[in-house]
Amino acid sequence: MSSTGARLLGARLPTHPMAWWIWALGLAAAASRTTNPFLLLLIVAAAAFVVVARRPLTTWARGFRAYLIFGLVVVAIRTVFHIVLGGGYGETVLVWLPEIMLPEWSAGIRIGGAVTAEGLASAVYDGMRLATLLVCVGAAVTLADPRRLLKSLPGALYEAGLVVVVAVSMAPALIESAVHVRRARQLRGTSARGSRAFRSIAMPVLDQALGRAVALAAAMDARGYGRVGSLTVGARRTSAALLLAGLLGLCLAGYGLLDAATPGSVTVPALVVGVAASVIGLVIGSRRMVRSRYRPDRFDLRSALVALCGLAVAALFFLTELSGLAISHPSTFPLDWPQLALIPLIGIAIAALPGVASTPIEPPPELTQGPLVPNLLAQGVLESEVGVGHRVADRVRVR
Amino acid sequence: MISFENVSVRYSGAGSDALTGVDLVVPPGEFCLVVGPTGSGKTTLLGTATGHVPHFTGGLLRGRVLVGSRDTRTHPPRELADVVGMVGQRPMDGFVTDSVEDELAFVMESLALEPAVMRRRVEETLDLLGLADVRREPLAELSSGQQQRVAIGAAMTAHPQVLVLDEPTSALDPGAAEDVLAALHRLVHDLGVTVLLSEHRLERVVQYADSVLSLTAPGEPVRYGLPGEVLAESRVAPPVVALGKLAGWAPLPVSVRDARRLAPALRQRLGDAAPPVRELPAAAGLTSEPVLRAKGVWQRYRRGPAVLRGVDLDVRAGAVLAIMGRNGAGKTTLLSALQGGLKPERGTVTLDGDPVHTLAARARRRLVSLVPQEPGDLIYLDTVDAECAQADTESDAAPGSTLTLFARLIPGVSAELDPRDLSEGQRLSLVLAIQLAGGPRVVLLDEPTRGLDYAAKDRLTEILSDFARTGTAVVLSSHDVEFVAATADRVAVLSDGEVIADAATAEVVLSSPTYAPQVAKILAPGTWLTVHQVEAALLAGDPLRWGQAGQASRADLLSSPEVLR
User: SS3 breakdown of chain A: % helix, strand, coil, rounded to 5?
Assistant: First the structure.
C-alpha cells in the first residue's frame, strides 16, 4: 500500500473495538443463515485467521482456543442428544439402538431406536451452526478488549457496563485466590475430599472475594464513580424506560432476524421501534455529561472497513438464502452432498479480509523494556538510526 | 484544610464509640501522620475525612468534618472526589482499569474534565511519580512499589487538596517504601497537598511528618501536635524516639539525623560495652548440624524466568533465620521450597538427609510448618474452638493442645469468636497455634509482621525466641528491618533468586544502609541494633543511675499486657 493510502486509512490507529464487534456479529448473522457445513467451517476458519493475525497481546486475547473447544462440545452434545432422543426420520438406518417405550403422555418423545444418516446429518449441521455463532462471539471478545469497548459506550450505559466488566475481570482473581487457598490447605496437611474440601477452599476464597469487592467499591466511590450530574429524576427515569423498551424491541428484532420463520411484519417494526427508543433514551441519559473520555478510540476508515466486511458477509449470506438455492440449507432428506457457490465464497473471502486489511497490532514492548532505552531516547540518541528506534518512538509518541 | 469538629463515630451494633471527641484542624499543606495501636480507630478517622465514614461503612457520625469547605455529612465520597484523594493498603484491590494510563485518567473521567486537560495531567503525574517507563504496562505486571505509586497518581490526577493514605507502605520492601514516601514528600512540597497518612512502621515515615495525630484506644482523647511532643507521650513510638527517651534527650529527636547529632554523649556512656551475642541453646543436645538444608535450589514458574537460581541455605535448630530482599526476590518461593510444597526443579531440600518434598503432606506438616502470608487462607471454620479442634486432629496432637497454645500466645480471646472477626494480630496467633500445635522441628513464617503494631511485634519476637529456645528452627521472611534486628540470629539476603549475603544479623544489617535499623544508624560505628540492647548495657554499666530510667522506659516500650490486639 502506498504511503498516501496508508495515511488515508489511518495507518496508526488501532481498530475500533466496535468495528470488531460489528464484524463478528456480521459473521454470526451469516452463520445463522446457513446450515451448510462447509460454509460454516469456512466462517470459523475466516474468524480464526483474523484472530490469529490481529489478536492483541493482552491476557484477554488468550481465550480463543477455549471458544473453539466449546464449539466442538456443542456439536458433540447436539449429536448425542439426537442419537438418544432422535426424531427417527430418514431411511438410511445406521444403527438400531434399544428403544425404551415411554408412557402415553410423553407422546412424541422417544428414547433410543433407529439412528439414521439423514437425522444425524441434520443434527450435526444444526450443532455446527450454533458452534459457529459461539466462535464468532469468541472472536469478538478476543479481538476487542471489553474494557476498551466500554470507552465507546454511550454515557447512559457506561456505569452498568463498568460493573459488568469489573465483575468479569474478577474471575481470574478468584481462580488465583483458590490456588493460594488450596496450597494453604496442603500446609495443614489435610487430604479432605468432597464437600469438606470444597467448603475449606470456598469459604476463604469467598471471604477474600467479598473483601476485595468492598475495597474496590470504596475505591471507585472515592474516585467519583456514580456522581450524579444535573439530570433530574424524571429525565433519568424516562431515559431508563426508553432504554428498556428499546432493548426489548432490539431483542425481538434480533430473534426475528436469526429465525427465518418470523414474518418480516414483526421484525421490521420491532427493529425500527427498538432502535428509535434506544437512541432517544441514550441521548437523554447521556445529556447529563458527568463523564468525559480519556483518549477515546477513534473510528477511522480502516475500522469502518472492518465493520463493512462484517455487514457485507451477512448481506451476501442473506442473498444466498433468498435466492432459494439449496446452497444455504443442503437437503438432508434425501441426504445430499452439500454444494458450494460463488456468492457465499466471496462472502467468506470478505470475512477474512480484516486479517490483512486492519491495522496491525503494535509489537510487544519487550525490546524497549528497562530504563536504558527511554533514557537514551531522552538524550536524543536512539531517535532514528537504531533498529528499535521506531518502537521506542511508538511507545512514547504523543498521540 | 480538614477540620474535625467534635467528631465521634459509632458503628451500628457496636456498644461503644470507635472514635470519640476528635476536635482539631489540620492546616493546608501539612503532612499529618496518624499513629496508634491496632484497633484504636485510625482507619475510622481517615474514613471520616474521605466521607467513607459513615456514607460507605454505615454507623453514626456525630459532630462535623469539613474538608476544604465541604461538609462530609452532605457530600458522599464521590462528590468529594475532586477535593480528597484516597489510597489504600492494597493498591491492586482498588484498581478499576488494567493499564497505568487509564487508571490515572479514571477519576478525571468521572469529573468530566476536558480531554486536553486529562492528557496533560496524566503526563505530569507520570513524570512526578516516575512512572513514565511503565505507562503502557498492564497494572498486574508492575512491582508492588510501582502499583502503589500508580494508586497515588490515580488519586492525584484530580488535583485534590487533600490526600488520605491508609498504611500505603505496609506491603512494600524498604527500598520501594522509600520511593513511595519520596514521591509523597514531593507532592507535599511542590503542590502543597495536605496529607493524612496512617502507618504502623513509624520509623519509615515520621521524619517526613509535620505533625502527628495520636490515637490511644477507642473512646480515649486524641493528641495532636509536633511529632516529638506527641510521640514522647505515645504508646507507639519508633526506635529513635524510644532511644531518645531512654537517653533523656530533649527535645526528643524524631529523625535519625537529629538523633545522631545528640548521640556522642550516649556513645561515650556506653563506652567499650558491646551488644550481647545471643548463644544458641546448648540444651537438648543440639548440634550445629543444620536440620533443613537447601542445596542448589532452582525454581521457575511456568515459562517465566527462574525465581530461585541455585539457592544454598542451612537452617539450624534453636536459631531464628530471617530472609530479606526486595518484593519479588523469591522469598515466598524459597519458603515454599523449604516446606516441601514445591518440588525444586533442580537441587534438593533435605530434612535430616531426606528430600522434604517426598514426605506425605500430613507427615511433613508435623516436621516443617509454614505460616503463609495471608493467615486467613488457612482458616475456614466458624469458631476459634472448631478451628483448634480441627488442628488437633490434623496434627495428631492431644485434644485441646492447639487451644491451649492459642491461649498462651494471646490470652483472653473468646474461643467462640468467628476467626474472621479477629484482628490481624489475633488471627496470626491463631494460625501460629494451628501450625505449631504438632510441635514441628522447623517453623517458616512468610511476612508475619504485616498489620502488627509495635506491641504485637514485641510479643511475636518473644514467642519466636521461646520456640527457638526449645530447639525449634525458625525461618521468617520480612521487610521489617527493626523486627528482624530484634528477632533474628542470622539474616540471609535474597536478590534476583540468589543468596547474596548469609551471616549473623549484626554483620548483614550493619553493612547495608537499607537494612540497618535506626539504632544502628544513630550509634554507628557501634554495633547496637535495638533499644533493648542499649538499655541492658546501660543497666549493667551503671545500675544505680540507670535502673530507674531503664525500668520506666522498658515499661513504656512493652506498653501493655493486651499486646497482639
Answer: 65, 5, 30
Q: Region B458-485: what's the mean pLDDT?
A: 91
- In the sheet where B31-35 sits, what is the strand order? B84-87, B162-166, B194-198, B31-35, B211-214, B223-225
DSSP string, B401-441: HHHHHHHHHSTT--TTS-GGGS-HHHHHHHHHHHHHTT--S
B206 found inside a domain:
yes
Q: How far is A59 from chain B (nearest CA, A)?
A: 9
Residue B175: domain span: 2-233
**CATH (domain of B449):** 3.40.50.300
| Residues on chain A touching B372 (C-beta within 8 angstroms) | 180, 183-184, 187
pLDDT the model gives residue A14: 82
What is the longest distance spanned by two Cα atoms in chain A?
Answer: 87
Instruction: Write out residues in chain A with pLDDT < 70, as ranges.
Output: 1-12, 58-61, 86-88, 104-109, 190-194, 228-232, 258, 260, 287-290, 325, 363-399
Q: Exposed (0-12), middle (13-18) or buried (19+): which is A253, by Cβ within 10 Å?
A: buried
Closest to B118 measured CA to CA, from A293, A383, A199? A293
Residue among A220, A227, A222 nearest B53 (CA): A222
Is B153 found in the same domain as B292? no
In angstroms, the CA A308 to CA A302 distance is 10
User: Do B86 and A186 make contact, defined as CB atoms within 8 angstroms?
Assistant: no
Interacting residues of A222 by C-beta distance below 8 A, sequence separation 6+:
B50, B52, B77, B78, B80, B81, B84, B85, B86, B155
The tens digit of pLDDT for each residue in B378-407 reads 888 888 999 899 888 888 888 988 998 888
CA distance A164 to chain B (A): 12
Q: Are residues B416 and B322 in the same domain?
A: yes
Q: Where are the domains of chain A?
A: 9-146+299-361, 153-226, 230-295, 367-396
Mean pLDDT throughout B322-346?
89
Return the residue matching grid coordinates 446429518: A121
B340 and B454, same domain (yes or no): yes
Number of domains, chain B: 2
Residue for cell digits 484472530?
Answer: A51
Per CB-CB distance under 8 Å, the chain B contacts of A364 are none
pLDDT for A87 = 61
The single residue listed with the C-alpha cell 469538629 is B5
Per-residue confidence (pLDDT) for residue A191, from 0 to 100: 60
Look at A190 and B109 and tell me if their CB atoms are within 8 Å: no
B280 burial (CB, 10 Å; 0-12 / 13-18 / 19+) is middle
Q: What is the ipTM of this complex?
A: 0.83
Grid cell, residue B168, equals: 500505603
Q: Is B263 inside a domain boundary?
A: no
